[in-house]
From TrEMBL:
The keyword Cell inner membrane does not apply. PROSITE patterns: HTH_ARAC_FAMILY_1, HTH_ARAC_FAMILY_2. SMART domains: HTH_ARAC (SM00342). It comes from Thalassotalea profundi. This is Transcriptional regulator MelR.
Length: 302
């Protein structure tokens, strides 16, 4: 979370994102760039088009996005910018899938994204452009409280989008009607697995539960998930739980035991073990670090 990706870079030999960035947030402001080929990566991606328009190929289908729009899509769908017009710039925001799914947006909203749809806000808000500039300034400072604040504001902006009118390009409908398979192998099964985990990660679930719900053999479910997501099902479930726990540690004064149970860990010992292994500190140390950073920032501004 603290190591934001400034730009999604790809191996020259492969259109797939170089492994290692799937769990990092990312932010980039730049001039639109025509891409030589499609690529994909594991993030949920936001594109803001400020005073410019763009044409994309999304899973082989052309879409045109007018200027002054915000679009949201799952970047595991092969995508490519093929044309742009205007003198403005665009902002790309990359959100780890496990963070996005832990934010609990409306089911229909999430379903459309996981089925390969591109969602388009019908209009930008007057605050969108200055807000993205402020996010950029905040992230440059590399201060934990500011980074968490940016993440909260991104989450709230997407929540607002989910509650307001937005448009689609009927890509998921066209996919089902044509019977064409996704260019990402096994994506349909991954969608089912992700949806089930997103709804149940805060409960006691196993790989067998996931496989049974999706109608797959457990070994096949584990294999295809790790191939596409570059992480095991168990690791992915724990990352969703950690995202949930981090938010509770930052935003509430709840006891660690209550946080562990609410996030789905089942016990404080298991929570402490996984948290320390992931962040090299205890949950209480994490909470204290955030508190100290906020206190120091408040002193510096006075």
């Amino acid at each position: 979370m603290f190591d934001w990706v400034n730009r999604i870079r790809f191996d020259e030999s492969s259109p797939l994102e170089v492994q290692g960035h799937e769990n990092n947030f990312g932010f980039q402001r730049h001039q639109p760039e025509i891409m030589a080929s499609s690529h994909w990566h594991g993030h949920i991606e936001i594109n803001y088009l400020f005073n410019c328009s763009a044409d994309y190929l999304i899973n082989g289908k052309k879409i045109s996005v007018p200027e002054g729009r915000m679009i949201l899509f799952w970047a595991s769908i092969p995508h490519q910018m093929i044309a742009s017009d205007g003198d403005g710039y665009m902002v790309n925001i990359y959100i780890p899938l496990q963070a996005f799914l832990s934010w609990k947006f409306p089911n229909e909203f999430i379903e459309q994204i996981l089925h390969g749809e591109v969602l388009v806000a019908d209009s930008l808000h007057p605050t969108d452009q200055p807000l993205t500039l402020m996010w950029e300034e905040n992230l440059i400072k590399k201060q934990a409280p500011l980074m968490f604040q940016v993440i909260d504001e991104i989450r709230n902006r997407i929540r607002r989008m989910s509650l307001e009118p937005f448009s689609t390009f009927n890509l998921s409908y066209a996919e089902r009607k044509s019977g064409h398979k996704s260019l990402v192998s096994g994506l349909h099964h991954i969608q089912l697995i992700l949806r089930y985990i997103a709804d149940n990660y805060d409960k006691k679930i196993t790989v067998d539960d996931v496989a049974q719900h999706t109608g797959l053999h457990p070994n096949y479910a584990m294999k295809i998930f790790s191939q596409v997501m570059k992480i095991s099902i168990k690791q992915y479930i724990n990352k969703l739980r950690l995202q949930h726990a981090q938010a509770l540690l930052i935003d509430t004064n709840n006891a660690v035991l209550n946080i562990a149970l609410e996030a789905g860990f089942g016990s404080t010992s298991r929570f402490y073990d996984i948290f320390q292994r992931e962040f090299a500190m205890t949950p209480l140390q994490f909470r204290q670090n955030i508190f100290n950073s906020r206190t120091n920032d408040a002193i510096a501004t006075n």
